[in-house]
Design brief:
heterodimer; A: Folate-binding fold; 6 strands; B: 22% helix; 28% strand; elongated
């Protein structure tokens, strides 16, 4: 039962207001892509014990999709940010580095 | 025998006698009693039978940890099984019956299992029931089902109501003992908003029973003053009969308040579920005494020493007149002293420690109690109540030194902090070797959203057992919680409690230390699931090294008490058998709820009509009045058919199809999804969403479209109407409206956020009526208004206009193959419009039709239905819908996936029509068999039925199905075995059974 702040409406939303949307920052591979790339895009997901980036939707609130950077072990939430981005904002990455130095997740460090 | 004493009892009111019944016998207790104390007060020592061996069992404990005294409570609509007698407050007219026996508690046939116990060791079921294979279904399973289950399931609807309560607070303190009360006050004086919950009906916990002085006052008086002080603080909420059931992520806590269990039928909810978000949680949940593992430790009359003391002090009930106390620590002496002071005979204190205890031992000796050090219980005998005890040396195998007749045994194996709530959300434990228990490891607390700890243990739950230390620890915990919740601390005066030093415990995991096997086989660890010392040792010998595996193999700690008594003894036994240290073996996982909570409380108000809101179209009431046989579709109810009086539903469906094909039918199509997609990039967006090209659709026209997901699988279909250059109205299936709208939003917000498009779900804004059949046009012309002729309003177009004075948007689309207009009006006018159509249609033989007629007509036309022809693994190409997949578009959702090798495999099953040779209706879902068998010895398959109906139009069974290379095998006959031995032979045909050229819909 997490609580996440919706970056659009500013509400501290209870998990019952939210819908989990799996991993964030997936790069879409469409027609013309290789089988390997397409398979990875469709099926391969991170399952980290630690820093993770996820998609959530404030489905019983403003309806907007957003991203959450959080720790799957300590349940610490480093921050939430709008979904219209292909990478985590610098300030959130810096914040994570301050708390969990040396972290990495996919291409991000 | 257990007996009510003539004086004493701090919680009972002797002026108020209460009458209740147990197994039909009328018994008496007093106001303030629990069911357990009242039963013991009436010398009812036998209260149930154990689960596996049906051994006679009595009350062991005085609180939530009780494993044996589970009873059926109440009758009829207030019947509930598995209620703990120890946590059930007595009320007038209470009616309880015992469980797990047949035919009676006193004489039970199932007790035969006990005689067979040598042959029913741990893992027996796994070993025994595996061979021969065929025995499982006919012999073993019926036998196990017969003997399984605890209590009896209720057979009536629950008469009570339940509610949920939401709260945000700074600090929740769990446990209303001395530690909880002090922690609550320490937090509250800073200004923090505090909720204090106590699971029993009384404040104070154990302290008033065990005694002591705090700030110079008897602890009971001190607690009374503390409760008064707290109840006057506006920022403090106090709740009795409220158990904290679980601690979850980010400070979420569930409280289970038993509001009316002690006064059934009184107004208000029976239970209340508190859904709390707390910044900090203080767990002052106390500790639970451990039993000692000696042979016969489950004979009724053997009780925890603390429970014996509780019943004596709180309810003036003595567990026996001649009691033996067995202990390995000083606390057990308190029970002996209390019994002696109450005038009961204490025959012996058997202290496993060679040198005995400290000050408490001296006091017991002063009172004249005989104390034998280095002694233990070898065996308790008696059957349905304790009769005698064999005394032996603790350091030995159990050779009897002496046999003593007695009627009760009080045992104390030391205390275990209640660490459940601390552990629920990841708090770790540390083994305290000196005190022999697991306690919270403050350096590894559960952490919240800010990465900081949010659970603070206090008092004996924190492993602090002495009153003076508890007071200090509790105040510190309360202050720490308030500070973490953001409040400023002021200096607090220290609380002075009288110190009462004790001699260290000697851990005793088996009694006597080297008990021989005959004794180990009768030494119970888990009373409720009948797990003995010998079972855990057997599991270790058979290679179960992990405590989690041993738990599941032996069922240790898996009963409804979740091992509150048994866990530490069990894992210590396992550690010993494995030659490992206790902390290396570890504990099993603590999971919520702390004690079972009612399903009613979980459901709360959400039951009956409130459980799930029902969506109703504007015409719902009309359908109800006109014989609708309802079918649930999503959250809607749609008429399956409109049966007339005396008519069967099947006959109604046949009539509706025929009438629609011959005259005119009306369908309430309001539930179909209507999503408006608008913006400069709307066409571009829909091109990516649908498999076909939507941007080329001209305003005023309609086009049937397919939607796939990124896996390539078909997820929805429907007609898209282009309203203007920037606006499209997308129809979806009834069940798909919300899902498809969310699908659009997801892609717009998270992938193509640069597109200028809005999507709005208008489904409930419009009532939509399909006017279907050869006389549809005549009917609309009679209503008058817009021109509905074939020339000005051709097939697959839409127009705004008026009909019979209603403002309408009409679409000439058809899901039946007939001349058809789907007409949308604002929802508020839906019923009036429907009634106008019905009235005007009389002369044309108009009849409403339901979803089954719709299904039959679409199947006659070979139209697919999402959910029948598709199941989440079907691509449009499987259904012969290649014509609806654009070859010009570079990209659409599913395009790349449909290029994968498995999707282009020519052996994928493809859609065909199926026609039985004798006109019979194929069974739904039947598989077509092929030559040979698969590796499991089952017939190979080559296809399956996806839709199957009796067609009243064609007077025979028709079906659609997916068949291996089906479209290439037209005319071939394949076989579909039914479930009753019959084999259906069906010919592969074109899926369009009716009006293949579409002459009827295009007129």
């Amino acid at each position: 039962m997490l609580t996440l702040e919706c970056p659009y409406c500013g509400v501290m939303a209870d998990e019952t207001e939210l819908t989990a949307g799996g991993e964030a920052h997936l790069k879409r591979f469409g027609p013309g892509s290789s089988d390997e790339d397409f398979e990875a895009y469709l099926f391969e997901r991170e399952n980290p014990k630690g820093v993770h980036f996820e998609r959530w939707r404030h489905s019983h609130g403003c309806g907007k999709w957003f991203h959450a950077a959080r720790n799957t072990m300590t349940l610490e939430v480093y921050g939430t940010y709008p979904a219209q981005t292909s990478e985590p904002p610098v300030e959130i990455r810096n914040k994570i580095s301050g708390i969990a130095p040396g972290w990495s997740w996919r291409l991000f460090k | 025998m257990s007996v009510r004493l003539s004086t004493g009892g701090r919680l009972i009111d002797r002026a108020t006698e209460i009458s209740f019944s147990f197994n039909g016998a009328r018994l008496k207790g007093y106001a303030g009693d629990t069911l357990a104390s009242a039963l013991l007060g009436s010398d009812q020592m036998l209260v149930g039978r154990s689960f596996k061996y049906h051994r006679p069992r009595g009350i062991v404990a005085s609180g939530a940890e009780e494993p044996n005294a589970l009873v059926n409570m109440g009758e009829g609509a207030r019947f509930e099984p598995n209620q703990r007698a120890t946590t059930t407050e007595l009320f007038a007219g209470l009616s309880a019956t015992s469980q797990n026996h047949w035919p009676s508690l006193e004489f039970d046939v199932g007790a035969l299992n006990a005689k067979l116990s040598r042959f029913l060791p741990a893992g027996f079921y796994y070993k025994m029931f595996i061979h021969p294979r065929s025995f499982w279904k006919h012999v073993y399973e019926p036998f196990i089902r017969q003997s399984a289950g605890l209590g009896r399931a209720p057979d009536s609807e629950d008469a009570d109501s339940y509610e949920h309560f939401h709260l945000h607070t700074d600090v929740v303190v769990v446990g209303g003992g001395i530690a909880g009360l002090l922690a609550a006050r320490a937090a509250a004086v800073t200004g923090a908003k505090v909720l204090l919950m106590e699971q029993t009906a009384h404040w104070g916990g154990r302290a008033p029973v065990d005694g002591g002085l705090v700030d110079g006052q008897p602890v009971g008086d001190y607690i009374d003053a503390l409760v008064r002080e707290l109840s006057e603080m506006p920022n403090v909420t106090l709740r009795l009969r409220c158990m904290a059931s679980g601690v979850y992520d980010h400070g979420y806590l569930l409280g289970y308040e038993r509001v009316r269990d002690h006064q059934p039928g009184a107004p208000g909810p029976r239970h209340r579920l508190w859904r709390v978000r707390a910044k900090q949680i203080v767990t002052a949940t106390g500790a639970i005494e451990r039993p000692l593992s000696f042979a016969g430790n489950d004979v009724p009359g053997v009780m925890l020493a603390s429970a014996v003391r509780d019943y004596l002090v709180n309810y003036a009930v003595s567990a026996g007149k001649r009691v033996i106390v067995a202990t390995n620590n000083d606390d057990g002496y308190r029970t002996a002293i209390a019994l002696k002071q109450a005038g009961q005979e204490v025959l012996r204190i058997l202290d496993a420690r060679e040198t005995g205890g400290g000050a408490l031992m001296a006091e017991a000796r002063r009172l004249g109690i005989r104390i034998d050090c280095g002694r233990a219980i070898g065996k308790v005998s008696g059957g349905k109540r304790v009769k005698k005890v064999q005394i032996c040396a603790y350091a030995g195998a159990g050779g009897a030194l002496e046999e003593v007749a007695c009627d009760a045994v009080a045992m104390s194996g030391g205390w275990s902090p209640v660490v459940h709530l601390w552990s629920h959300c990841g708090g770790k434990l540390t083994w305290d070797a000196e005190q022999a228990y697991f306690r919270p490891d403050a350096t590894r607390a559960p952490t919240g959203a800010d990465g900081q700890p949010y659970v603070v243990p206090a008092g004996s739950a924190n492993g602090v057992m002495m009153l003076d230390a508890i007071c200090g620890d509790a105040v510190e915990a309360g202050r720490a919680a308030a500070k973490a919740a953001g409040y400023k601390l002021k200096k607090a005066a220290a609380i002075e409690a009288e110190p009462a030093p004790e001699t260290p415990i000697e851990p005793v995991w088996m009694m006597p230390r080297d008990a021989r096997v005959q004794l180990r086989m009768k030494a119970w660890l888990d009373y409720q699931n009948d797990v003995k010392v010998s079972d855990v040792q057997l599991a270790a010998r058979e290679g179960y090294e992990s405590v989690e595996h041993t738990k599941r193999y032996t069922t240790l700690g898996m009963a409804t008490d979740q091992g509150k008594l048994s866990n530490i003894n069990g894992l210590a036994t396992l550690a010993d058998a494995l030659g490992a240290e206790i902390p290396a073996v570890g504990t099993t996982t603590f999971r919520p709820p702390y004690t079972p909570i009612s399903m009613g409380a979980i459901g709360g108000e959400a039951r009956g009509a409130v459980f799930q809101p029902l969506r109703r179209t504007a015409m719902h009431g009309w359908h109800e009045k006109n014989g609708a046989d309802w079918e649930p579709v999503g959250h809607w109810r749609r008429p399956y058919a409109f049966a007339r009086s005396g008519e069967s539903v099947h006959d109604a469906v046949m009539r509706e199809v025929k009438n629609t094909r011959e005259n005119v039918g009306l369908l309430d199509a309001s539930t179909l999804g209507k999503i408006l997609v608008k913006g400069p990039d709307a066409g571009k967006f829909l091109d990516l969403l649908y498999t076909n090209m939507m941007s080329s659709l001209k305003p005023g026209k309609c086009r049937y479209g397919l939607m796939c997901n990124e896996n390539g699988f078909l997820v929805d279909d429907g007609v898209v109407a282009r309203i203007d250059d920037e606006t499209f109205l997308c129809h979806t299936t009834t069940g798909g409206a919300d899902r498809i709208h969310a699908h659009m939003e997801e892609w717009l917000q998270t992938e193509w956020w640069d597109m200028q498009v809005y999507a709005a779900n208008l489904t409930e804004q419009y009532a939509q009526v399909a006017v279907v059949g050869p006389k549809a046009r005549m009917l609309l012309e009679k209503l008058g208004g817009m021109d509905v002729s074939a020339e000005t309003f051709p097939f697959m177009t839409w127009q705004d206009g008026t009909l019979g004075g209603f403002d309408v948007r009409a679409y000439r689309i058809s899901f039946s193959g007939e001349l058809s207009y789907e007409i949308a009006v604002p929802t508020a006018q839906g019923l009036a419009f429907w009634e106008a159509l019905v009235a005007a249609g009389k002369e044309f033989g108009i009849m409403p039709y339901g979803t089954e007629a719709l299904h039959i007509m679409r199947a006659e036309k070979g139209f697919i239905m999402i959910g029948d022809e598709t199941d989440g693994t079907i691509i449009p190409q499987d259904l012969g819908l290649n014509w609806a997949i654009s070859k010009k578009k570079e990209d659409f959702l599913g395009k790349r996936a449909q290029e994968r090798a498995h999707m282009t495999d020519p052996n994928r099953w493809k859609l065909v029509g199926l026609e039985t040779l004798d006109g019979a209706v194929l069974p739904d879902g039947a598989y077509a068999v092929a030559e040979g068998v698969n590796p499991n010895g089952q017939r190979n398959t080559q296809g399956r039925v996806t839709s199957t109906y009796y067609s009243p139009t064609l007077c025979k069974g028709i079906a659609m199905g997916l068949v291996l290379k089906g479209p290439e095998r037209m005319g071939e006959v394949i076989e579909f075995p039914g479930t009753d031995g019959t084999v259906f032979k069906a010919r592969i045909v074109d899926p369009v059974f009716y009006d293949k050229d579409g002459e009827k819909q295009n007129v």
